[in-house]
């Protein structure tokens, strides 16, 4: 401890040296600080962040119960990759992905293979890498060129797929969405596929709107393509959100391993898996779809265990939290939580649909997410960006942003309903929206603005 007497714990709060002078920003300070002082500075600075539960832009969990917090705290120090030191955490990871394989109707979960990841972005990268490696192996075996792989997906795909194509030298082929085809639905799919196509991505819960892409229709289109061309193209289902909604709310919807063409599925444990960030999962319907040369062996209880995630050291606590929730909620508990979120989403979308200013893009009937736009000709005095800013002043983060390529002239606003947004809070939010729309509609001149800016919406 420094000998500077002014560091005394008895000094009045906010008069201690670092607080009185301001904390350094870009250089590590030369001397230590009292723990209470450092803690107070951090609390003061993070206080300036928004209220996480009022952040309706993010899909990521912002609330867990008190028991979960205790489970989390007891697991802070566990390293997921250290399977020899933490064998039971490794076993819990194995339990979780096998539970998911069964939830997603793997024909034989004992033959499936899966892993936890830092998030669904890493899980998607692994799914894409498996596609690329298997395609390369088949091409080499046939004596064909392997230099030009491509991946087919919707123009509304999440940015992680753009990253995958950039980082791993794969050509992205985007099928544009339109007013007639609001998702990738198999329409004109043959125009984008050739012998260099490593796979097709189908999204269960499009980031822009929350809508499901009809995986069965995409698979049927690929069946027809195979019949006419001989090209056998697999599907990866990006179920970042929907893979933890559909099994509970739409159990009869066929989107998962019931479709033979679906080789792999990924999801975010930290989205509708209900766990704090960051946790993802990826599972292959059969281990044969994960190339052996992507798998490494690590020491485990005197033997070896496969590992094939991109990251090495990473937290084990979120995996333990996922298992806690599977045990705590069970199937019926998850169904109840997801149903409540959807009920809140449909309540809000119905209320917004009643306002003369708006028309819905979708209503939250897929995942509990919906988007709306301004009706043509309603006003020239304000935009959804103005409504976004007005709501932010009340603490609510509800993003407005342009739709993807070919629809970028359309601006939408979106609400993501997660566990923690109660019906009581939703009623307050709807009243706030009604009040702010009334305020904006009463303007007798356009709102001043430097430039409209889209808020974070991934």
Task: For this entry, give a set of tags.
disordered N terminus; alpha/beta; 4-stranded antiparallel beta sheet; 458 residues; Aspartate Aminotransferase, domain 2; 7-stranded mixed beta sheet
Structure description:
With 458 residues, the chain is an alpha/beta fold. It has three domains: 5-49, no CATH class; 68-325, Type I PLP-dependent aspartate aminotransferase-like (Major domain) (Aspartate Aminotransferase, domain 2), CATH 3.40.640.10; 332-441, Aspartate Aminotransferase, domain 1, CATH 3.90.1150. Helix content is 35%, strand content 14%. The chain is built from eleven helices and 13 strands. It has helices at 17-21, 35-46, 66-74, 87-103, 120-141, 159-167, 215-229, 246-249, 317-353, 384-393, 423-441, and strands at 113-117, 150-154, 171-175, 197-203, 235-238, 262-268, 280-284, 296-300, 303-307, 358-360, 369-374, 400-402, 411-416. The strands form three sheets. A seven-stranded mixed sheet has the order 1-7-6-5-4-2-3, with helices on both faces. Strands 10-11-13-12 form a four-stranded antiparallel sheet. Helix 3 runs antiparallel to helix 9, helix 4 (87-103) packs parallel to helix 9 and helix 9 (317-353) packs across helix 11. It is globular. The two termini are 44 Å apart. Residues 1-5 have low confidence and may be disordered.
